[in-house]
């Protein structure tokens, strides 16, 4: 399988780093306009690089679009003559597959994905949706590529990617926000910044691993930590009184609605 990346930024770099552990790096092409970034990719991974879109791309089986969403209409139009036989995978946030297909002249084999930033360390989770013409073999290829940076979840409808964006795409920011609050609280209670950092990071990593490995739901894990009349119960009572659970759900719904709006805004662009 010959794979091409249009754009060599952070997410493409992470995907390439995972893929070269599985396939011959000479089977990977990267189109990157920045000369320094091109040289770094070639030196670090042994992949083939070039600065422009040209006939070399016609040999590719899969093309991964890893450019900024605002650039994609023009990039897709320029790319169209060279990728008519390729499976297209987009990691551009907010760009619907139907709009991308239109910019590519009606290209039918498109998989739209929504990775998240832990992919940069191989621990991401990616939502994936495909146009009807994408067959089983195409899905397997797309899965292999995206699993180079973590887990994948296939969705029946592309519209579900708006919920994925709200939940896991933006999700790391919610976790970091909670971490910030706990770090500040730790220092307010007399701990040093280093002590709070170690305790908070260790708590999040350990709790996440425990939840991932446990057969019980997270509600049960929470209940096991919460003794009646104890310290955890006192903290959770404050959160319940402030309706934090409802606020979190409202926040994610706001993110989902904004994802829908962005899809409309970006999809209305013309090359």
TrEMBL record:
Keywords: Amino-acid biosynthesis, Cytoplasm, NADP, Oxidoreductase, Proline biosynthesis. It is an enzyme of class 1 (oxidoreductase). Pfam families: F420_oxidored, P5CR_dimer. One of its GO terms (biological process) is L-proline biosynthetic process. Its main location: cytoplasm. It is found in: Cytoplasm. Pathway: Amino-acid biosynthesis; L-proline biosynthesis; L-proline from L-glutamate 5-semialdehyde: step 1/1. Residues 2-94 form the Pyrroline-5-carboxylate reductase catalytic N-terminal domain. Its EC number is 1.5.1.2. NADP(+) binds at residues 6-11, 66-69. GO terms for cellular component: cytoplasm. One of its GO terms (molecular function) is pyrroline-5-carboxylate reductase activity. Catalyzes the reduction of 1-pyrroline-5-carboxylate (PCA) to L-proline. HAMAP family: P5C_reductase. Belongs to the pyrroline-5-carboxylate reductase family. This is Pyrroline-5-carboxylate reductase. The gene is proC.
């Amino acid at each position: 399988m010959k794979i091409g990346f249009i754009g060599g930024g952070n997410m493409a770099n992470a995907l390439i780093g995972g893929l070269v552990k599985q396939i011959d790096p000479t089977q990977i092409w990267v189109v990157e306009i920045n000369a320094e970034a091109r040289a770094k990719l070639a030196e670090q991974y042994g992949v083939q690089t070039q600065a422009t879109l040209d006939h070399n791309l016609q040999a590719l089986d899969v093309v991964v679009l890893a450019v900024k969403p605002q650039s994609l209409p023009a990039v897709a139009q320029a790319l169209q003559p060279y990728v008519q036989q390729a499976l297209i995978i987009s990691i551009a946030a907010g760009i619907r597959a139907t709009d991308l297909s239109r910019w590519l002249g009606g290209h039918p084999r498109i998989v739209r994905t929504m990775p998240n930033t832990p992919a940069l360390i191989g621990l991401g989770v990616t939502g994936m949706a495909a146009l009807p013409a994408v067959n089983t073999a195409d899905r397997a290829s797309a899965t292999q590529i995206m699993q180079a940076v973590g887990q994948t979840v296939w969705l029946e409808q592309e519209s579900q990617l708006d919920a994925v964006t709200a939940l896991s795409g933006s999700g790391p920011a919610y976790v970091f926000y909670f971490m910030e609050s706990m770090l500040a609280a730790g220092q307010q209670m007399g701990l040093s910044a280093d002590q709070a950092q170690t305790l908070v990071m260790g708590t999040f990593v350990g709790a996440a691993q425990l939840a991932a490995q446990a057969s019980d739901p997270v509600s049960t894990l929470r209940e096991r930590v919460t003794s009646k009349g104890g310290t955890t119960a006192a903290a959770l009572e404050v959160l319940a009184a402030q309706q934090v659970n409802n606020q979190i759900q409202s926040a994610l719904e706001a993110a989902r609605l904004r994802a829908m709006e962005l899809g409309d805004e970006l999809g209305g662009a013309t090359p």
